[in-house]
């Protein structure tokens, strides 16, 4: 199913006719709509003005998408592995994967990139699966430290590799858009497991591959 994530105009035609069955869209309970209206009012606006009438419904559905990771087990993406790797026993690295998440303290966006590496122990996965694992955890309310740790641990638990390295660099909307309003400041977190934790040479090597000497 293809869903339109565009913040404006995607469903104007239908939304003004509330009796039309909204095909393919999840129903939004009244108490959820009321909660968003309360927040709009609290923010200082009038939830009854025309431009905001359908906002509660859109916001509710958008949050279901932002948090769609709660409905999946990211580890399932790692259940199909390949043993035939032609003797390859070096680092597998997926670099600078873009992602979006939301911080659990302010519900503000976290946008950044992740580099995920592992040193296979006979079994490898399709490379896109690493990005799917990342997204499964990112599409939940997060703190960056936990996101980093969860991605690494998931790969460790399912692939049992000789090492896992995850480095995430992100900007936090709660820092850039409020409070100290610090633009252009990136937070970097990393989680090393196995040889990347125990062996400084392996760690230096993987960090250098990630472009982080
Ligand atoms: Zn925050």
TrEMBL record:
It catalyses: GTP + H2O = 7,8-dihydroneopterin 3'-triphosphate + formate + H(+). Zn(2+) binds at residues 103, 106, 174. Pfam families: GTP_cyclohydroI. Signal peptide: none annotated. The keyword Transmembrane does not apply. Its EC number is 3.5.4.16. GO terms for molecular function: GTP binding; GTP cyclohydrolase I activity; zinc ion binding. Pathway: Cofactor biosynthesis; 7,8-dihydroneopterin triphosphate biosynthesis; 7,8-dihydroneopterin triphosphate from GTP: step 1/1. It comes from the Bacteria. It is an enzyme of class 3 (hydrolase). PANTHER family: GTP CYCLOHYDROLASE 1, GTP CYCLOHYDROLASE I. Belongs to the GTP cyclohydrolase I family. This is GTP cyclohydrolase 1. It comes from Novosphingobium olei. The gene is folE.
């Amino acid at each position: 199913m293809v869903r339109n994530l565009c913040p404006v105009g995607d469903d104007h035609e239908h939304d003004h006719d509330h009796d039309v069955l909204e095909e393919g869209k999840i129903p939004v309970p009244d108490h959820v709509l009321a909660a968003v209206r309360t927040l709009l009012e609290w923010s200082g606006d009038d939830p009854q003005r025309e431009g905001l009438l359908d906002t509660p419904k859109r916001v509710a559905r958008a949050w279901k998408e932002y948090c769609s990771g709660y409905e999946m087990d990211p580890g399932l993406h790692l259940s199909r592995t390949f043993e035939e790797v032609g003797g390859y026993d070096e680092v597998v690295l997926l670099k600078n994967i873009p992602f979006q998440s939301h911080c659990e303290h302010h519900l503000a966006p976290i946008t950044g990139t992740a580099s995920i590496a592992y040193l296979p122990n006979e079994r490898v996965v399709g490379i896109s699966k690493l990005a799917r694992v990342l997204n499964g955890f990112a599409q939940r309310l997060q703190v960056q430290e936990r996101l980093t740790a969860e991605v690494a641990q998931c790969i460790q638990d399912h692939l049992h590799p000789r090492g896992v390295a995850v480095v995430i660099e992100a900007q936090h909307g709660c820092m850039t858009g409020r409070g100290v309003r610090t633009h252009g400041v990136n937070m970097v977190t990393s989680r090393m497991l196995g040889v990347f934790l125990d062996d400084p040479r392996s760690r230096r090597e993987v960090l250098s591959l990630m472009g982080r000497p």
